[in-house]
Amino acid sequence: MSDHFEGEYAPSPTDWVREAVEQFESSGGEVSLNEPGGAPIVVLTTVGAKTGKIRKSPIMRIEKDGKYLAVASNGGRRENPGWVANLRAHPTVELQDGPVRKTYVARRLDGEERRQWWEYAVALWPTYTEWQEKTDRQIPLFLLEE
After folding, report:
1. 59 with 67: CB under 8 angstroms?
2. Cβ-based neighbours of 120, under 8 Å, separated by 6 or more
3. 40 beta partners
4. What's the distance, CA 120 to chain centroid?
5. What is the pLDDT of residues 7-34, one digit of tens each?
């Protein structure tokens, strides 16, 4: 990990999140969500907005041209996932894709750029459409760039 991500790691209090991160990291990034034949995931490492602790979240693997998209769907719930506040407070993140870990800077998308990335995300993971329909909030999209 890069120096930016040194500090106390605070595992998620949500069982499936914590377990997915543990399985992903212990396998060297070879685990997908809902194995076997599950959707590919990556692990997003952020710095906690309130605590300053290291947080890790499994997110769907949406990559194009070396850039990754973090979709804050939260399964269509009314609130954003906790990592959204972390990205806003500390936009420098680490992403592990398979065995490779790199540092990225996150920025929220809007307008035409958001529309294009949303279409790409939905093409890879159509469930996002259902989750968007379940909530009144517009699901935030963050582009992770080196």
Report:
1. no
2. 62, 64, 69
3. 32
4. 16
5. 899 999 889 899 989 989 998 888 776 6
First-to-last CA distance in the chain?
A: 15
pLDDT at residue number 60: 93
| Residue 1, C-beta contacts closer than 8 angstroms, at least 6 positions apart | 45, 94, 101
- Do residues 71 and 139 make contact, with C-beta atoms less than 8 angstroms apart? yes
Domain spanning 3-145, CATH class: mainly beta
Which are the contacts of 123, defined by CB distance < 8 A and separation ≥ 6? none
What Rg, from alpha-carbon coordinates, does the chain have? 14
Q: 24-70 pLDDT, tens per residue?
A: 999 888 877 665 456 789 999 999 999 999 999 999 999 999 999 99
Q: How many CB atoms are closer than 10 A to CB 100?
A: 9
134 alpha-carbon distance from chain centroid:
20
**Rounded to an integer, what distance in angstroms lies between the CA atom of residue 84 and that of residue 55?**
11
Q: Which residue has the tokens 């070879």?
A: 30
Neighbours of 98 (CB within 10 A): 13
Contacts of 122 (CB under 8 A, 6+ apart): 128, 129
Q: What are phi and psi of 41, to 5 degrees?
A: -120, 165
